[in-house]
């Protein structure tokens, strides 16, 4: 169970004909009572923001954080499609209003898929009618919604967490064009907690910064990146553990996105410690996580610390390399900016060789400058990514 795990949430996923293969491609997540409740969202910072992002931003602002639900489509990003694209996005929310009640500005809209391709607007109204007949609050309904937002994803990404008197659920999609900056990724988080619009937006922005804004697959920020939080207000106002529970669900979804990277075989945890500030630690972690050379080393299971230090030096020109050390899988291979492999015991060498073949590889960089730390998730880069993206995809 994912988005329908909290009370007061309903969802559906249908095949509306947007995808040429006939797969599930249209979803809705909203409130079981059909009313307007608390909503928050964080969007891509790209100047090339897609039509659905533009419409959703406007609606969230005019509704003052009170929404009825979100319509999501996959197979066509409706990005860089001009006025016809905006008209299609507006048709999606007006059709949702006709089907589920209320005004069009009470709905948000998300799309994902190919960029620059005219959106098949003729599929929208029949698709919303199908959604109206499929809505449910059961686990199956949530699962179908999660599948309906997939593009190149190999599995539906879902997570949930029960807190003290509240529940949190979530679904996400993403496997490439992942370097969120709101921040192709979409995410809907749901809860039955009673939140003010201000707390919902503050919590979501904080969580996004800690999770989705700290993952990268290929360094490409999408035109459509959107994370939405819906609160049904069925339960009481939660304590401070709400934000931590929301963070846990988002972290699970963020990890799932990286683990499903197009053509990827390994997840890299780039952990920077000893930073003088969070900002500099994050800058270093992002530089290492985004390096194609480091990604190639991950693919080969090669603990090549030299590539790591090169990125640290680029990200932090003021760093003293004589104070920097690097470990792979808990085994230190660089100390004081120099090779430390000669100092390894036979047991450590064997352990490192064995663990470099694992699905998850932890690279820890100690800057030796302070006490701040940051972790960024990345994936290796392989032939599968090139095959998937060498043409329009």
Helices and strands in order:
Blueprint: E1 9-14, E2 26-31, E3 37-43, H1 51-62, E4 66-67, E5 69-76, H2 82-100, E6 107-114, H3 124-134, H4 139-148, E7 157-162, E8 167-173, E9 186-191, H5 197-210, E10 215-216, E11 226-231, H6 241-259, E12 267-275, H7 278-290, H8 292-300, H9 305-315, E13 325-328, E14 331-335, E15 338-339, H10 346-355, E16 360-366, E17 372-379, H11 383-389
Parallel strand pairs: 5-6, 9-11, 10-17, 12-16
Antiparallel strand pairs: 1-2, 2-5, 3-4, 3-11, 7-8, 8-9, 12-17, 13-14, 13-16, 14-15
Q: What would your notes on this structure say?
A:
With 393 residues, the protein is an alpha+beta fold. It has two domains: 9-259, L-amino peptidase D-ALA esterase/amidase; 267-389, Ubiquitin-like (UB roll). Helix content is 34%, strand content 25%. It contains eleven helices and 17 strands. Strands 10-17-12-16-13-14-15 form a seven-stranded mixed beta sheet. Strands 4-3-11-9-8-7 form a six-stranded mixed beta sheet, with helices on both faces. Helix 2 (82-100) packs parallel to helix 3 (124-134) and helix 7 (278-290) packs across helix 9 (305-315). The longest helix has 19 residues, at 82-100. The protein is globular. The mean pLDDT is 93.
Q: Could you say which structural class the secondary elements and strand pairing correspond to?
A: alpha+beta
Separation of the first and last Cα atoms: 30 Å
- Main sheet, how many strands, which sense, barrel? 7 strands, mixed
Write down the Rg: 22 Å
CATH topology of the largest domain: L-amino peptidase D-ALA esterase/amidase
Low-confidence stretches: none
Number of helices: 11
Instruction: Bin the helical content.
Output: 25-40%
Q: For the largest beta sheet, what order do the strands appear in spatially?
A: 10-17-12-16-13-14-15
């Amino acid at each position: 169970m994912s988005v329908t795990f909290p009370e007061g949430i309903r969802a559906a996923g249908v095949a509306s004909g947007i995808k040429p293969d006939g797969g599930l491609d249209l979803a809705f997540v909203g409130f079981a009572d059909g009313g307007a409740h608390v909503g928050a969202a964080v969007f891509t910072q790209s100047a090339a923001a897609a039509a659905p992002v533009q419409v959703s931003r406007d609606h969230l602002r005019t509704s003052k954080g009170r929404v009825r639900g979100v319509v999501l489509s996959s197979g066509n990003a409706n990005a860089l499609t001009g006025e016809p694209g905006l008209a299609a996005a507006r048709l999606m929310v007006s059709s949702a209003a006709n089907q589920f009640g209320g005004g069009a500005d009470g709905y948000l809209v998300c799309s994902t898929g190919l960029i620059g391709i005219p959106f098949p607007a003729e599929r929208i109204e029949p698709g919303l009618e199908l959604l109206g007949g499929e809505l449910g609050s059961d686990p199956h309904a949530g699962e179908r919604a999660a599948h309906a937002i997939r593009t190149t994803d190999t599995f539906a990404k879902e997570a949930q967490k029960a807190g003290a008197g509240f529940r949190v659920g979530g679904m996400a999609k993403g496997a490439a064009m992942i370097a969120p900056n709101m921040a192709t990724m979409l995410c809907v988080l749901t809860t039955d907690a009673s939140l003010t619009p201000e707390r919902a937006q503050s919590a979501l922005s904080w969580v996004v910064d800690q999770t989705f804004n700290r993952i990268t697959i290929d360094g490409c920020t999408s035109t459509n990146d959107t994370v939405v939080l819906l609160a049904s207000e069925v339960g009481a106002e939660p304590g401070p553990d709400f934000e931590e529970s929301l963070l846990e669900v988002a972290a699970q979804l963020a990890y799932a996105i990286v683990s499903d990277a197009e053509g990827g075989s390994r997840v890299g945890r780039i952990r920077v410690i000893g930073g003088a500030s969070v900002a500099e630690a994050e800058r270093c972690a992002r530089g290492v996580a985004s390096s194609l050379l480091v990604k190639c080393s991950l693919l080969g299971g090669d603990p090549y610390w030299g590539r790591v230090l090169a990125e640290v030096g680029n990200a932090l020109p003021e760093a003293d390399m004589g104070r920097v050390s690097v470990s792979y899988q808990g085994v230190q291979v660089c100390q004081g900016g120099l090779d430390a492999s000669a100092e390894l015991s036979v047991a450590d060498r064997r352990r490192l060789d064995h663990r470099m073949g694992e699905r998850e590889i932890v690279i820890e960089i100690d800057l030796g400058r302070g006490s701040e730390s940051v972790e960024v998730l990345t994936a290796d880069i392989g032939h599968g990514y090139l095959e998937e993206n060498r043409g329009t995809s």
